[in-house]
Amino acid sequence: AQSVSQHNHHVILSEAASLELGCNYSYGGTVNLFWYVQYPGQHLQLLLKYFSGDPLVKGIKGFEAEFIKSKFSFNLRKPSVQWSDTAEYFCAVNASGTGANNLFFGTGTRLTVIP
Amino acid sequence: EPEVTQTPSHQVTQMGQEVILRCVPISNHLYFYWYRQILGQKVEFLVSFYNNEISEKSEIFDDQFSVERPDGSNFTLKIRSTKLEDSAMYFCASSEVEVQGKYFGPGTRLTVT
Q1: Which chain B residue lies closest to A108 (C-alpha atoms)?
Q2: Of A35, A4, A8, whose CA–CA distance to A110 is shortest?
Q3: pLDDT, tens only, B19-69
Q4: Does the beta-carbon distance from A105 to B44 stay under 8 Å?
């Protein structure tokens, strides 16, 4: 079964600092990978996704993530965070080609950006 | 921008009672899902629904749970006899095609007392 690990539970950064949130998954086959963001009091929103092709994917709001197959990782990055990036970030994986369509989520990383 | 809506935003019920959580997926989407998040834990998949039938369900989705698309717009999750451990945030989601980023609703917080 697939699982997703997000080792950082709470990250606190000052504005303009660079961000990297770790995500590792366990599954031997082909995966689709996602990052979702949940701003305070709002929905889960898709930030970016990887299905195939270029392992460096760019999402909304200046976020990007890099799929490193050998490390089973899909870390989220942003070169310079803003106060408005304060939110909870969830990594999720879906096993491609299995017919299974459900997402396995990580526990989430709370990001607090201090102005 | 189209969005998934859910009602109610917060439901409080007594143990053993039946609850129905309602969702209106995005209108042209064909795949519908329920997820839940117990406080402090992961978002967990419950069930997916396509073409008027369940396409996949998790171990959590036992006989106490059922889903229905009673008309062309609503998608409901029923918990037949609620337990304390059913207290969680329940998220509905929909997607246009099978493997795609899903659009999530705002969630319904279910509190079972």
Answers
A1: B42
A2: A8
A3: 999 999 999 898 999 999 998 888 999 999 998 999 889 999 999 999 999
A4: yes
